[in-house]
Amino acid sequence: MQQVSPRTDAQWKAIFYDSVQPRALHLQNVKVGMLRKSKAQQEKAEKKVLPDRLSREWFDEEAMTLETRAYLLDKLLPTLVPGVEKLLKVAERKKVLEVETEEMEEQPSNFDPINFLGEYLMRYNPSYAISALPDPYVAGIKAVTEELKAKVPETTPNKLAQLKELVKEKRKQREQVEEIKNRVKAMRKKALAVQFREWTLDTSLQIPLAMAQSALKSFLDMHTLPTDTREGLYARSLETIETLEVKLNEEEFAEYVFTYIKNLTSDMFQELLKHLFQCANDAREIIRHDMCRKTFLQLFLDCDCGKVGLLDRRRVLTLLESFYNNYSDLAKKGFRNPRQWPVVELDDIDLIEFWGDMEDDEQTASERNSFLLKHSLLGLSEEAIVLNQILKDILSEDTLAVPDTGDTTEAVEGEKEQDPTAVPGTSAVIEASFIEVMKVGLEIWGDNGNVSPEGPAATSESEAAVMLEWASKENDLSSDRQTSSEEPDIAAKTSTAEPASSLGEETTVTDKDIGAEVGHEHPDESTEDQPTEDTGEPLAEAITEGQVSGLSPEPSGEASKTFEKAPQLIYGQPWSGDLEAANLTFDYTDYGKEVREDWNNENSRFPGLRMNMIDIQCHGPPSSASAFEKNCLNLPQFVQLMETFIGEDVSLPDLKKLVKFMKQGYVLLEKEKLSQMERVRHDALLARQQLLLAALFEKWDNECSGFLDMKEVDAVLSTFKEGMEQEALEKAKLQLPIPQWHPSGVVKLSQKDFQTYIDLVISEFTGNEDEVLDNIVEFLMTSVEKTHMERLRGSARRKWLHTIQHTAKTNGGNIDLVYQAIFKVLCQDADAHGDSKKISAYIALLEYNMLFPERGDILLHYVACTEDDAPYVLNQSLYMDMKGVSFAAALDDKPIHVPRVQLHGNIHFWNCDRPKQERKGSFLVLPIEDIRRRVFGILGLDTLRDRNDQTIFVPHEIRFYQGIAKAFSAAYHLIRTQDSIKQMTLTAVEWLSTRAPSLHAITAYFMEPGKDRMYDYTLRKVMTTNQKGHMEPFPHPAPVLSRNDTLFSDYLFKCIDCAQVVTVCVYEDHHIAVPLRDPAGYAMVVFDISLGRRQKLPSCEHKDLQKMLKMMQAAACEILKEDLGNLEPYYVLEAEYVGDWRRGGVLFYRFMLQDLQNCIWNLDPQHSFDELRSREKPLTLVHKILKCVLLILYPQWAGTEEVENWKCCTEKLDGELIENICYFDPTAAYVQIRSEVLYRCLHGIRRIDVWKLGSAPVEYLYNWTLTCLSLIELAKKLQCSQTRASHSSGLLVHSPIQSRQTFEVSEGINQTISST
């Protein structure tokens, strides 16, 4: 037979299966149907014949006869018993059983019972499948047989019965578990339904789905769980909701949340309920602030008469200060002082006031609450009982007033700890509400003459605690009483109450009484509806009554009716269900901007630049971010400033007064309006000019090298107007701030230099500058013609370079990902535009040669390479005495191309295993320059692994590889800058941790842009404080936070958007979001400073926090300006010459030292120290500080009379001492100070004691002493690190492609040529 081909065989099998398989399935289904039908008929027949109960007499579990009885019942009796029964019937019919008579004896019967029985047994033998007729007794025997078989051990029926029993038991257990789960599910859903009523609902009694989703996500962030536990905590993965249009009612909310938390333990579920309670309060605050922001939005539009999108910041601050000064002391307690931070910037505060002002700010919230508690519990032993009868209805409802953040909370802290199931903050809030209402009641009674507001003596702390406990018990008892037994007027008030359980709401009827009592006038209060409190069931009771699952009982029908009828009002208005002012940065991005878009159309004057301009705009800064300016405010910044000013507890009448005052007070003259409009127009023209020149540069630099040859630009410009403007070109060239000579012979113009050059040329030409610009751009645009293929190649390469840049900005500081992106782009370009070359690539950095100085001062350390070359190249070092052209390229700062390496003779081959005949190909070395055009490494490429004939790099490839080298340089220095900022942050937080113990936590987020400006940015959490208060970086990859992840972290994005300080209360903790700005004013880092339950730090710690933030901003700007090339490195201290990322920590202390030196320099040596000189007996604290100052300047005086005697110390307080302090460098090599001596002198001096002393000179000297001591210690660490680094060549970087273990030879980082 001829063999069938595989294709034909496969086709035949497919046809066969298609035809045969349906028939086989049909026959199988028929057979199964017949079996099922037969079984059904058998079951039907068995149901007709009921078992006889007499057959149960055979059932006996006696072990001796069990097996025999089972055998007989199975094999014999089912046939024998019907046979005997048949035999008896036949015998009776034939009268065989009757008593024999004479007649019967004469005629004997021929009926033989034995034969009959034998015939019956043979006829109905079960072996031949001939069953007897159905019989009830036999059916009973069969049932008994089955039971007995199950009792016979070690038999199949017995094992089967055991399995069935086990299955039955398991099924029963599953049913019980399922029943418990259903019961728990129902109880949890009821608890969630009760919790739903804590949220602020819109007019349709719903909440946005995004709020529920945000609460669930934030619950994971609030609990520090392992990664594996965190991912499996919820039953399904969380989703991101980007809109507030999707809503949930009570039933949908309970069902939606339950689908996530159904697997939570009881304790975890209770924690979730507490967290949802906090989120409900925070959501209400978000809604309230959104209404305020909407009011401020309209205020901005009303004040911006010229629609320029800007307001005068100085004038706004002046109006706020005037409004604040004209308000009474008690009325302005909700506002922040506009002369202090965070309303004003730290740079706006005078230096002397910043460091020498030791006056306490206004009382913090905790101190005010402590004062009120102390004075409101006077003489309440009798009156409290009477007031409780009036106020018990308010306390019985789910009413949560402003949270007590101070001593009141601390007074009941012990009660909180005794009740582990209580919601954190709930009992304290209720108790604080009770105290506040009791205080108001006392004041009202005092006016009526019943009770004097001032009692004879203050009650003790134990009496206060007993009263709080009594109030809590009365609250629980009153919640069970019916409203019908209460007074009519109180019932009428509570029936129209608002279900407001959020924190910080001052809108009850009692608040109006407070305002009237203290004399706070609100003329329009009587005509406006004030929101009232909630009458819903308290969530705290719902949580504490849970048993197995931490659940609450179902609310009563009466409470539900009250909840449905009660309106939910914020500032007297129902919530619409949307946060209309939440995205001002997106909604008003282009408001007031006069940007000419004449280029963005097909018929524009610059059609050849249109696509380049669109691409440049897309890769610009995020559209939602705004740059901070000292003199003006745009719309989002104005709204945020006003929101910061009003604080968290402003009332509606106060808000209206503020808006009215600002609207009437902000008036601009016509001259000022014209000035603003002219400025906006100038900014628009400048932006258009920069966009045009950037697009023109990209058109000329089609191969993306990153620079232009100045000779080529001059050659084209010299033909403009047929050479008539040659003199203007020469003048512009002389003003160009770049060297006119380069070692490579090519004067490179970067994009910034090109724009500067064209600006200088335009300024030298006569005529209108805008028209001259358009003419030059049009002329240069038409002077360069590229083919369609060249434009496509340039577009692709520019896109790949953007990928490298984006990777550097969004990788969290991981240089390995940058290496990977570079090698990937090189391979892509070689495949697409390099004739599919097979290339090898590697990057080497210049380092000082510390190990073998006889082989040269510097070496090239190969830190990354492609995967195939990793075994031979990675972590290798090329010395100056070795073969190679890499040093020539680095030292001469020019690319070197070796077309045929086999003919060169001075090439070092790392792969010694490759035969000499295979060492063929092309070799290219490109220098890597920093922003100041100093070489710090090389990028090498070769084609030795390519076996094709055409392996030479062509010019357009070389120019693109130069662009890659420049992109790597930018990425490398960006990561170095981030490392410097991290080091500066570590140093700053370490300094603050010893001065501000009340600070709860500090978290640093780095802003990472999206793919283009239309994509929103993200925040990467890079550092946070540990339990000891020290900053620790997050391991890679650090978590990333996006704007849509949770609504409760939106304040971090507002801080980045406006580049301003944002204060907020989230999860009952007070937070301050502080931006770290770049020199252009854009926020690049945000610090989330958590104050815990404190509303404000103590004055001393608050001032130190401001000092830290100011020094960090100054140090960050210095670092960024140097890295951007806008500022030459300026070293003040010797420790700054370290030249790497550790300089960030030195800069922090350097700016602090300079500020203190300026303050000390302004002291009058004759009068500033008079108070200290006049003391006969010195203060120990002051003497120790002066002793430390003198020991720092004169360490040889240790133990002498010069520092031990007080009069000798005071005699040194003169102009010479001030001058020595101002010129002292604690990090200089000549400084020989023993730190332990200074520490012994400072031992026992507390920061708060120096603050309370109130002496500015002592404050300056104390801070100067600590700063010098910190710099001395830091200099020693750097010197020790450099000493250890002298025995090695630095840090070896592992390959980004082939994962290898990274190891450190020293603690220092690579010391490159660029750091010298």
From TrEMBL:
Residues 493-507 have a biased composition (Polar residues). Keywords: Coiled coil. Residues 526-536 have a biased composition (Acidic residues). Gene3D superfamilies: cAMP-dependent protein kinase regulatory subunit, dimerization-anchoring domain. CDD domains: DD_EFCAB5 (cd22968). Residues 405-425, 474-510, 517-536 are annotated as: Disordered. It comes from the Eukaryota. Residues 160-190 form a coiled coil. This is EF-hand calcium-binding domain-containing protein 5. It comes from Gekko japonicus. The gene is EFCAB5.
